[in-house]
Amino acid sequence: MSNELRLGIAGLGTVGAGVVKIVEKNSDILAKKCGRGIEIAAVSARSRSKKRGIEISGYAWEDDPVALARRKDIDVFIELIGGENGSAKASVEAALDTGKHVVTANKAMLAVHGQYLAELAEQRRLALRFEAAVAGGIPVVKVLSESMAANRVKRVLGVMNGTCNYILTRMESSGLSYEEVFAEANGLGYLEADPSLDVGGIDSGHKLALLASIAFGTRVDFESMDIEGIDRVSITDIEQARDMGFRIKLLGVAKLTGKGLEQRTQPCLVPADSPLGRLENATNMIVIEGDASGQIFLQGAGAGEGPTSSSVLSDVVELARGQRATTFGQPAASLVDAKPVCSDLSAPFYLRMTLKDEPGVLALIASVLGDAGISIDRMRQYKHEGEAAPVIMVTHRTSPAEIAKAISRIKTSGAVLEDPVSIRIEEI
Ligand code: HSE
């Protein structure tokens, strides 16, 4: 009887085709590392005839991914269809129902149905693995669940969406507006079919929700996450932040506070000379802070054929070796509900104000901030433009609630020509 691990691959887009290429090209390495061969038994996709740069005539074909998942001649079902529900979820359920392990790159499905699917898999003594769902080629799921298993994780944060990082760094290097760079990124094919998944912060939120579950032993809770995208980030803020020694990044941040689980995806300032601040283009970086390990930085390609397929196959290798890791680093039934909390932890803030260029205006702003208990760390006033005096401040640590209160007072103080902008500075 053949000892090979037989794969059924549903979805032959960039990642699916990449998986086929690596299995074919590196079959010798895979066999050595696993102690057995890996073979593709059957595939499924929307179109059988589409050109993909791979030859699929040697594999059995199914039009329906659910039928593929149910085939008797596969051991592992690889779901690369995407989407929260529909045939992705139906085929994963079918695979688990019929005794197949599942490997998926589908963060949207897991962010919403991860708890249910993990419990389903574990009740049947099957594995549901998702290394490729978070940060493409970066092996963060395994690092967090295995290498850091002895740690009490204090915080997980990072740049988890390459498209947003590309847009923000390109705005800075070109001086172009958000709208212009968005159009450019679209032309380069960087954006998801629904661009709001990227620029609206949702994709980053999906990934963060999965990492938070592993990090804190909590049930995946995407619904409670605070999500803000990058569409309000202006070229002015990027340039002024740089002038003050910062760069703007779309960060995902998860932390267990004394009150509950804080999860947020939002544009933040980070020091320009920090590893996160130096992150260019579509690269991803995840930072994990363990009580024993200290800070761990993982950097790499967050998307693309090679990196994402490499992660898919890392899960396949694990299964071929007979390892049966749990989905979220501990039995799914033992994950606990965490109370969702909004961030009320103190942080420094960046404030940009367009003041009226009149006597006493700066004193008025300083007194509003002083009354709110907000202390100014640094301040710069730029050359006035007509009636307007642009002012940037960096505050000492203060609570987000105090900043919001001060901003609403400043808006109605008669001292500003435009609504002030405030952006949190994430300490790293
Ligand atoms: N659209 C994602 C990104 C890649 O830009 O990082 C897939 O998760």
Descriptive overview:
This protein is α/β, with parallel strands linked by helices and 428 residues long. It has 14 helices and 16 strands. A 6-stranded parallel sheet has the order 3-2-1-4-5-6, sandwiched between helices. A 6-stranded mixed sheet has the order 8-10-9-7-11-12. Helix 1 (14-25) crosses helix 12 (305-320). It is elongated, with a radius of gyration of 24 Å. The termini are far apart. The structure holds L-homoserine. The site of L-homoserine has 8 residues, from helix 7. L-homoserine is lined by residues 161-163, 192, 198, 203, 302-303.
The Rg value, from CA coordinates, equals 24 Å
Shape designation? elongated
In the predicted model, the low-confidence regions spanning at least 5 consecutive residues are none
Distinct bound molecules: L-homoserine
Helix content: 25-40%
Number of strands: 16
Strand content: 15-25%
In short:
With 428 residues, the protein is an alpha/beta fold. Helices cover 36% and strands 23% of the residues.
Structure characteristics:
alpha/beta, about 425 residues, elongated, binds L-homoserine, six-stranded parallel β-sheet
